[in-house]
Design brief:
The complex is a heterodimer of chains A (641) and B (207).
Chain A: E1 14-17, E2 20-28, E3 33-38, E4 44-47, H1 48-57, E5 60-62, H2 77-93, H3 103-113, H4 122-134, H5 140-144, H6 156-170, H7 178-192, H8 201-210, H9 213-221, H10 223-230, E6 246-261, E7 264-278, E8 283-292, H11 298-309, E9 325-328, H12 337-345, E10 349-352, H13 362-376, H14 396-399, E11 402-403, H15 404-419, H16 431-441, H17 450-454, E12 459-464, E13 471-473, E14 476-478, H18 481-494, E15 504-510, E16 513-520, E17 534-538, H19 549-557, H20 597-609, E18 629-633, E19 636-639
Parallel strand pairs in A: 6-9, 6-11, 9-10
Antiparallel strand pairs in A: 1-2, 1-5, 2-3, 3-4, 6-7, 7-8, 12-15, 13-14, 15-16, 16-17, 18-19
Chain B: E1 14-19, E2 24-28, H1 31-42, E3 46-51, E4 56-60, E5 63-67, E6 71-75, E7 80-85, H2 88-91, H3 94-111, E8 115-118, H4 120-123, H5 126-135, H6 148-155, H7 161-168, H8 177-183, E9 187-189, E10 201-204
Parallel strand pairs in B: 7-8
Antiparallel strand pairs in B: 1-2, 3-6, 4-5, 6-7, 9-10
Classes of the chains: A alpha+beta (641), B alpha+beta (207).
Chain lengths: 641, 207
């Protein structure tokens, strides 16, 4: 588009005047003259006709000012609608030679035609029309470039007092309401005897409204509530490799199970299932069903991990292998010493999620929900999610119908069915198909020493060795010839006057398998002290094979279903509770002088060889700490004595 | 044990990394540090490393502060490096620059080596880390039970990763054999590009 040049349009315009930037500083319409400032030179005077000739010859050219564009990209739908509304009036006015004289007529016509409920007053439309013309016949600037900041009439001190009041009584835990905040502010205002006008409640409320909702909830109701109310998902999972990430969780289900033993019916308790869910292929990698009180127990979790890692006897259950990374919550059983020892043994990275953040392992939580809806709903004896506020005539015990074996079979069938059902998340592949597809490039890895790995059991127990009964756990007896030779060796090393010194042994127990226990060989008897050596000791009772301690307990201690109170088969696992040790054991660097390179290297080598951060290792005495400090004063660094 | 004692669980997630190189489980403060640890594992110039190696107490004015370097690593040439791993955006913070300056001076005085700062520019590559994560599990694969030289004779003509997998499928080995070749850099591929069957084989390092 060409610009039409006349003497008026040149005023204050920039020119390229004989290859140098210049500006028209004044014009004289009477003489038809233009005054040009070129750098530091004296003012140049030209007649307009002369200047036009110079422009035609190419010696002078007018610099075209760039338009300041309006940012319409960020316009909200409301702003866009407002632009369209105003343009309807302005375009109607443009038909007239003197538009403002026909403003009322235009308002009447356009508001009727476009069914505009807002409309315009005459004077308002005339004002807006003038802005529309000056903005180059565009309605966007007056909507989008509106300066909404009005000057503040409240003095700074009063503003500060308002802020102080808000943070003193409103933005605190269990803070008061907005009205009471204003009362506090009002009292303070009166005390200080300000002469200016007191801001109203509405003004204070506006200040409160300016604070972000998240911050308000966080300070008034607490961090947990704020997280719950404002939680958002910012990243997308794009894992499609098997075993890349496995999430663990336990679900407790309100369904009672029975057991028929010796021709009698026993109530076993409610069901809890520990699950290992593979995120990449949406497969259930492994699980452990246990019956009893609702608790998360390291014994079951190691059992579940063991199930997840090993190949299953069922040909359809193809999911197995060592996971690369496991996500678990801060439950007692998960952060137990034995669970983490097991994860370290299989060289699996793991993350213990923050407390009260179930969304950190959303996939397994979602699967538990699916279990409730698709599997448990409709199963005989299921009473729905436990709610302590609801009173019912039925009880879990009274409704119990399935035996443990029946339930296990039902659950296995459900898992098989689930693994062969196509999922939208996997692009309509079934979890089994996704597993096969993913395993082509990154196949699952199997543990080298599976038999050795099976010795790792979840529950750590400390018990005195008894020469007559050997080792006992929950009224079961465990013995093998190796125990006696172990004790003999211990007696020789002990060198005490007592004929039979006490030997306390740590052993690992799998609550779901009473067939055997794994004794941890004492450090003094180990060939390689510091390394974990496990010895498998079988149960002396041949009837215990394949049975859990709970099943054996039910026969021994349990009452029949119709007699008295239910017997909850529970385990008194104490693992996982850990005293938090105070920080300490810092390096002693009290030597101020620079050591020789050889000494430094020796020290650094010893640091590298030190054990890694393992919480479950015993902590050394920290009472004799000697620190060296570096004192930093006046921006100088020196080592203090 | 002279390591830093950290809270085991609580408001922050705790992350543990099993180091195959050091045969220890290390603990990182963040996913960012875990990524750096993964990089150390694949870096042939690093012989061994230790996360949160030692704690030091230092004073600024009257106040006592505690500092633990993120990593101490030993390089192939025998040198040691103390490393602080930080996202680049935090390194521009004035208080950090001041603190880092003090600590750097301290490590120079004490160990005659600076406290190195590692940011995402030094190790973070999204695709590379994704590949590292997938292949890391095969780093400790035991090749000693196989005749590798014989295996490589069959792999000589391989041009893409798929060819290696196809050849390996004919061997009497476990399925993890093929990816373990790439994880242990016995067969070289560009891991900064997506790792799939069509990835180009750049060479066989073993031969």
């Amino acid at each position: 588009m060409f610009e039409r040049i006349n003497i008026d349009s040149l005023y204050k315009r920039f020119l390229i005047f004989y290859d140098k930037r210049a500006q028209v500083v004044a014009i004289s319409k009477d003489d038809n003259k233009v005054f040009i400032q070129r750098g530091n030179q004296p003012l140049i005077e030209r007649e307009f006709s002369e200047l036009v000739k110079e422009m035609e010859s190419g010696n002078v050219s007018v610099v075209k000012n760039l338009a300041a564009p309006v940012n319409t990209f960020n316009a909200t739908p409301e702003q866009q609608a407002e632009i369209v509304r105003r343009e309807a009036y302005f375009f109607a006015m443009m038909r007239y030679q003197k538009p403002t004289k026909h403003a009322e007529e235009v308002i009447q016509k356009v508001s009727f035609d476009s069914k505009d409920p807002i409309g315009f007053s005459r004077s308002d439309l005339c004002k807006k029309w003038k802005v529309f013309v000056t903005d180059g016949y565009s309605a966007a600037p007056q909507v989008l470039c509106k300066n909404r900041n009005s000057s503040n009439r409240i003095i700074e001190e009063v503003e500060k007092l308002m802020t102080y009041s808000i943070y003193k009584v409103y933005m605190v835990k269990g803070g008061v309401s907005g009205a009471k905040t204003w009362k506090f502010f009002s009292d303070e205002f009166d005390k200080r005897e300000y002469k200016c006008e007191k801001p109203t409640v509405r003004t204070l409320q506006r200040r409160i409204n300016k604070i972000s909702e998240f911050e308000k909830v966080r300070t008034r109701l607490g961090e947990s509530e704020a997280k719950k109310r404002f939680r958002q998902k910012f990243h997308k999972y794009d894992i499609n490799i098997p075993l890349e990430e496995v999430q663990l969780d336990s679900g407790h289900f309100n369904i009672g199970l029975l057991e028929f033993l010796g021709g009698k019916k026993y109530y076993m308790g409610t069901v809890s299932i520990d699950l290992a869910f593979d995120v990449g292929t949406a497969s259930l990698l492994g699980y452990c069903i246990h019956v009893g009180k609702k608790s998360e127990h390291s014994g079951f979790i190691v059992n579940m991990l063991s199930h997840a890692i090993n190949q299953k006897p069922d040909d359809d259950y193809i999911q197995f292998g060592l996971p690369r990374f496991v996500k678990l919550d801060a439950g007692v059983g998960y952060r137990a010493e034995t669970t983490r020892l097991y994860l370290d043994t299989i060289q699996c990275g793991y993350e213990i999620t923050a407390v009260r953040t179930p969304w950190a392992k959303a996939f397994v939580e979602s699967f538990i929900k699916k279990l409730r809806l698709d599997f448990f709903e409709g199963t005989e004896g299921y009473l729905g999610k436990f709610d302590p506020d609801i009173y019912t005539d039925t009880g879990v015990k009274a409704e119990a119908q399935l035996t443990v074996e029946q339930f296990k079979q039902k659950f296995a069938n459900f898992v098989r069915e689930y693994h062969n059902t196509s999922l939208k998340r996997l692009n309509n592949l079934t979890p089994n198909q996704a597993w096969i597809e993913g395993s082509k490039l990154i196949p699952p890895e199997v543990a080298d020493d599976v038999a050795g790995l099976r010795k790792y059991k979840g529950l750590k127990v400390n018990h005195k060795y008894n020469i007559q009964y050997r080792l006992t756990h929950q009224y079961e007896f465990f013995n093998a010839p190796i125990l006696l030779s172990l004790y003999d060796e211990f007696c020789k090393l002990k060198k005490t006057k007592a004929k039979q010194p006490d030997l306390y042994l740590d052993f690992l127990v799998d609550p779901n398998d009473a067939t055997s226990i794994s004794v941890i060989k004492p450090d003094v008897l180990c060939e390689q002290p510091g390394r974990l050596e496990l010895i498998e000791i079988p149960n002396t009772d041949s009837n215990s094979i394949g049975k859990s301690f709970a099943q054996l307990d039910a026969v021994r201690n349990g009452t029949e279903v119709l007699n008295g109170a239910p017997v909850f088969v529970d385990y008194d696992g104490k693992t996982g509770y850990r005293d938090f040790t105070p920080p300490g054991d810092l390096i002693d660097i009290s030597n101020n002088e620079l050591e020789s390179p050889a000494e430094i290297e020796a020290e650094l080598d010893s640091i590298l060889a030190s054990p890694a951060v393992n919480e479950y290792q015993s902590d050394t005495d920290t009472s004799d700490e000697v620190f060296e400090t570096i004192t930093l004063e006046n921006n100088e660094v020196y080592l203090s004595e | 044990m002279n390591n830093r004692k950290m809270r085991f669980y609580g408001k922050k997630a705790s992350k543990f990394f099993p180091s195959i190189k050091n045969k220890k489980t290390m603990r990182g403060d963040s996913e960012f540090e875990i990524c750096a640890m993964l990089d150390f594992e694949f870096d042939d110039d690093v012989i061994s490393w230790q996360a949160q190696p030692q704690s030091y107490i230092y004073k600024i004015g009257e106040n006592e502060h505690r500092y633990t370097p993120d990593v101490l690593k030993k390089n192939k040439d025998g040198s040691f490096d103390f490393i602080e791993i930080k996202p680049k955006v935090f390194t521009k913070d004035k208080s950090f620059i001041k603190k880092y300056g003090y600590l750097n001076d301290f490590f120079l005085m004490r160990y005659n080596r600076p406290l190195k700062l590692m940011t995402e520019d030094d190790f973070y590559h999204e695709i590379k880390l994704k590949n590292y994560k997938a292949l890391y599990r095969y780093r400790n694969y035991d090749f000693s039970r196989y005749q590798l030289e014989k295996a490589f004779e069959y792999m000589q003509g391989a041009k893409v990763v798929g060819d290696i997998y196809e050849t390996v499928s004919k061997f009497n080995v476990t399925k993890a054999f093929a990816p373990a070749l790439f994880a242990t850099k016995k067969v070289l591929v560009d891991l900064t590009k997506p790792f799939n069957f069509d990835s180009k084989v750049e060479g066989i390092a073993y031969v």
